[in-house]
Amino acid sequence: MSNRLKIGISQGDTNGVGWEIILKIFSDSRLTELFTPVIYGTQAAATYYERTIKEYDKVKFTVVESAQRAQNGRVNLVECGSKEISITPGKPSKVGGEAAAAALRRAVADLKAKNIDALVTAPIDKEMIQSDDFSFTGHTELLADALGGTPLMIMTSELMRVGLVTIHVPVSKVAEQLTKELIVERIYQINDSILKDFGVVRPRIAVLALNPHAGDGGLLGVEETEIIKPAIVEAYEHDILAFGPFAADGFFASGQFKNYDAILAMYHDQGLAPFKTLTPNGVNFTASLSEVRTSPDHGVAYDIAGKGIADEQSMRNAIYEAIDIVRRRREYAKWSSNPLEHFEREKGRDISIKELPETENND
After folding, report:
1. Nearest C-alpha neighbor of 44 from the set 11, 70, 91
2. Closest CA to 282 of 248, 311, 247
3. 8-state DSSP, 214
4. Does residue 57 have a pLDDT over 50?
5. What is the mean pLDDT of residues 208-235?
6. Cβ atoms within 10 A of the Cβ of 169, count?
7. What is the pLDDT of residues 280-311, one digit of tens each?
8. Cis peptide before 280, with omega less than 30 degrees from 0?
């Protein structure tokens, strides 16, 4: 039990579906046998939303001062922000945004300090969370600022994994942000993540075009010939199995995506629209950072908040995926640290490098 992973969960916007899906998930007490949950939020919001899901078992929270004091076998709650909060389900408010920000800051601080093994974030309202103290366009940008590095957004499910070259960028500015260097970097990132985070050796990566019909030989745009294709060639020359560029509509409609371990889209909706259409209950994973963060593939869903009908499966999948990625990363680090030593141990003998026979120098 001492080795059980601690998974942090931030409450998200208190007027959205965050607390509802959290309560539904942890109404099954058996989950605490798999990991130690540490929820960042306010008990007042939890109590409010318990009334909307009466058919589920009530969750018994253990309130703790910090993640370090989290107890195994319990659903731990770290109180964040004001204990007295106005809840208005389905209605955007600065109060809901402030509550989300308070929980998120505390959770990210614990993630950075390694007090939790991974973070799963419930949805926020990107507009309502803005303040003088919070100016990030989303979770991804906040995590990049806190942890350093260049994050890569990957949507993942059993059917496909889709990464994005540009993330939260207006469509009107996508083309001007695309460079060969950026696309090469993204190909390297997604290749590295699919190997270390998902355990796929020699992943096959499909790269999408920007323009309709992949530019039609320059008639509909030159980004494919001048930027995207040269990036793919450079990555391939460095032993990465990258292919494309593929016209996005035909790529998904024909089922061609099934032949690849990962897909790299040029912009947000190009990748997420087909992903969410073809794979309900997917997971958003922030790759290429030192720590693991996942989230459900949906937003605050104000239209159904407080009605007790929100589907918790995507959030549950996000928790499971976070656990799996942490374990895969640790296994990869273990087995790649000294491959020869591990190989010899598999054969039944422990060997140090000093035991290797010397070779003759024939120069």
Report:
1. 11
2. 311
3. G
4. yes
5. 94
6. 16
7. 899 999 999 999 999 999 999 999 999 999 99
8. no
**194: closest CA among 253, 166, 152?**
152
Categorize the per-residue pLDDT at 358 as very low, low, confident or very high, splitting at 50, 70 and 90: very low
Residue 245's SS3 state is strand
330: left (phi over 0), alpha (psi -120 to 50) or beta: alpha
Radius of gyration of the chain (CA): 23
> 35 is written with which tokens?
């990991």
- Other CB atoms within a 10 A radius of the CB of residue 79 amount to 19
Cα–Cα distance, 75 to 121 (Å, whole number): 16
Q: Is the dihedral of CA 131, 135, 137, 143 positive or negative?
A: negative
Give pTM, 2 decimals. Answer: 0.89
Q: How far apart are CA 116 and CA 208, in angstroms?
A: 36
Q: How far apart are CA 148 and CA 150, in angstroms?
A: 7
Crossing angle between the packed helical segments 18-26 and 313-337, to the nearest 10 degrees = 70
How distant is the alpha carbon of residue 193 from its chain centre?
Answer: 11
Identify the DSSP state of 56.
S
User: What is the edge-to-edge ordering of all strands in the sheet holding 204-208?
Assistant: 61-64, 75-79, 36-41, 6-10, 118-121, 292-296, 283-287, 152-156, 161-164, 262-265, 204-208, 241-246
